[in-house]
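thread: overnight batch results

M.L. [08:02]
morning all. the overnight job finished for the chain we discussed friday. pasting input first so we're all looking at the same thing
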Amino acid sequence: MVDATNTPRGRDLLIAARAVAVALGHTAAEVTELAVELGQDGRRDWQTAELLLAALAELARRDPGRRDLVGAVEAGEILGVSRARVHQLAERPDFPAPLCVLAAGKLWARADIAAFAARWHRRPGRPRKPAEGRAVLQLPALPG
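M.L. [08:03]
and the structure it wrote out:
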């Protein structure tokens, strides 16, 4: 196993892989153990972070019933909104909390986003601005 965790990118990948593992319901130790097995199984020239990502893929393949994670783009597809709108919605107190936050963004459970979509009363279009502060044009009454 090639150890590239001394580079900033390698450390970031290592942290991200372990965070995703925990979000999927695995311990960092489980993923690390499988990564070591993969490294001994003919992948000795792979970097540690690559082995951890391969271990995550293997754990997901072995146990597809684990949480299905979605990012802002996928959450937007479920909700019928843009990625930017998902980030706005994420500020609401009734929006699901992300399971983990990576450098690439927040990850939510697909089931949590689907549950939010079911209870969300969406009103399409831009919200109306309040009438306060608006100038109202008053026309003079016509004679007659």
